[in-house]
């Protein structure tokens, strides 16, 4: 099972949904899914864009539990 760290990373970096949308080019609805249990449904390109926008590695976006 995979647990999303996106909400934690956004809080740590003080980045809002809107700002993350701007930085990543990813729609808010997709960001919302990636923040929750549906992160496993995200394409690698989506995870890459989010990671780049947050200046982290893709593997930092989630934990295996």
UniProtKB/TrEMBL annotation:
Could you state a single Gene Ontology molecular function term? DNA binding
User: Boundaries of each HTH cro/C1-type domain copy?
Assistant: 5-61
The record's section on Gene3D superfamilies has: lambda repressor-like DNA-binding domains (1.10.260.40)
Where in the sequence is the signal peptide annotated?
none
Q: Which domain of life is it from?
A: Bacteria
Task: Return any one Pfam family short name.
Answer: HTH_26
Question: What protein am I looking at?
Answer: XRE family transcriptional regulator
């Amino acid at each position: 099972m995979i647990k999303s760290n996106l909400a934690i990373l956004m809080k740590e970096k003080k980045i809002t949904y809107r700002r993350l949308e701007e930085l990543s080019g990813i729609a808010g609805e997709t960001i919302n899914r990636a923040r929750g249990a549906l992160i496993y449904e995200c394409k690698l390109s989506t995870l890459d864009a989010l990671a780049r926008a947050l200046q982290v590695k893709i593997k930092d976006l989630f934990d295996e539990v």
